[in-house]
Amino acid sequence: MWQALAGGPTGFLGSLWPLRALGYLLAGGVLGLGWLFLAVGLVLVGIVLLPTGIGVVALLCVPASAAGLAGLERRRLRWLDRRDAPSPHQDASEAARDEPGAGGNAARRALRRLWRRTKSPATWVELGFAVPNAVLSVLDLLVAVVGLGLVASQPFALFTVVGGDQVMYGEGIVLTEAAQVLPWLLLTPVFAALACYLFAALAGARATLARAVLVGPRREKELDARLTEVTASRARLADAFEVERRRIERDLHDGAQQRLTGLIMTLGLAKLDADPALVARAQDEARAVLAELRDLVRGIHPSVLTDRGLGAAVEALAERSALPVRVADGLGARRPAEALEVAAYFAVAEALTNAAKHSGASYAAVTVRGGEELTVEVRDDGRGGADPDGGTGLTGLADRLAVHGGRLRLSSPPGGPTVVRIELPWTDGQDGRGTA
């Protein structure tokens, strides 16, 4: 929310952030007041029924209900903040200890779970949050409702006819001509914009408070450290894959291909002295194996990609595709980093293969563009309905792009067209291939 507010009035007011903020305030107000009524009811029931023992259970439900409210608040944080907000409660381990084989009936297990939840320090932190949160919920609802009411009533309810052509704006401003009413009506968008900023600021402050109390700085640091480690391990995995790919490419080029080339030459000489038909057949087989190995090497890492860049490599893919493919290369002489070229190349290859096998398309188009991002768009006129979970390899492609901080966007409505958009953060190529 704070980033949206800092993005300028045009981007903020033209986005959904004001509606998100308003929804956050209204929902928070309803939840907070609802919990307050529930908690007061449980306390009253607990006090009245305390001699029977049921009152103890009712009183224990008060902090447990605060933990439930805190869980809803952590989920609602995603309306304004995409960062994770995990629960501090070890629900999985508690559930494991409460299996039916652990002894006791269902009611006894529920009471044990309630007692453990009540003893948890995090529960009492959440109860300490829930009480002032219920009070602040009144402010949330008041600001949201009054702000909406003022904006909605501005063009209608604030003007009263005094007599003749005279109208009164508010209580003390008398306008004698109809033209004088227009400037006051034009203030409505101004009031609406101010209300949007007020909603956003209050919602951002409430979300910041909720995150500070319900997640806490220590948990944030643990999440940041874990995210850093995951990112580093993912980068190491990508580097290891690239090293292994180059080793396979080198072994195939220097080993099997050289031996098969020698075999073809030997068979050509032997054709002069042996059975010509048999030797010719063996020579054809050797040529087929060599062609297969060359295709394998090209599939691991095409030489045209290294020598001439992504645009030329995509054009080579288009020539071998079963579909007619039109390529628009907007990179020119610029080249991104080699790892980005490789990731984009294999994403395009997979997208064209899917279009030829599954879409029923009659043609495809590939557009390559550079700038702040390396963007490649593959479009076909097929029947659409592509599903990433349908085994088409799109999920694997998205994972491969994510290693480099990229995204795979898919639009494939039933009836088509299907558009696969590959977005990678631009990094200039080095080793003489581009501006370092």
Structural account:
The chain is of the alpha+beta class and 436 residues long. 64% of the residues lie in helices and 10% in strands. The chain has 15 helices and eight strands. A five-stranded mixed β-sheet has the order 4-5-6-8-7. A three-stranded antiparallel β-sheet has the order 1-2-3, with no helix packed on it. A hairpin with a 3-residue loop joins β5 and β6. α3 (17-48) crosses α9 and α13 (310-320) packs parallel to α14. It is elongated. The two termini are 35 Å apart. Mean pLDDT is 75; it is low at 91-104, 157-164 and 431-436. Residues 83-100 have a biased composition (Basic and acidic residues).
Number of helices: 15
What is the H-and-E element order? Answer: HHHHHHHEEEHHHHHHEHEEHEE
Multimerization state: single chain
Choose one word for the global shape: elongated
Strand content: 5-15%
Quote the average pLDDT: 75
Give the end-to-end Cα distance, rounded to a whole number of Å: 35 Å
**How many domain units?**
3
| Helix content estimate | 55-70%
User: Could you give the count of β-strands?
Assistant: 8
Gyration radius over CA: 34 Å
Major beta sheet summary: 5 strands, mixed
Could you say which structural class the secondary elements and strand pairing correspond to?
alpha+beta
Strand order in the largest sheet: 4-5-6-8-7
| Low-pLDDT runs | 91-104, 157-164, 431-436
How would you summarize this macromolecular structure in one to three sentences?
By secondary structure, this protein is α+β, with helices and mostly antiparallel strands. The chain has three domains: 2-214, no CATH class; 234-300; 308-425, Histidine kinase-like ATPase, C-terminal domain (Heat Shock Protein 90, 2-Layer Sandwich), CATH 3.30.565.10.
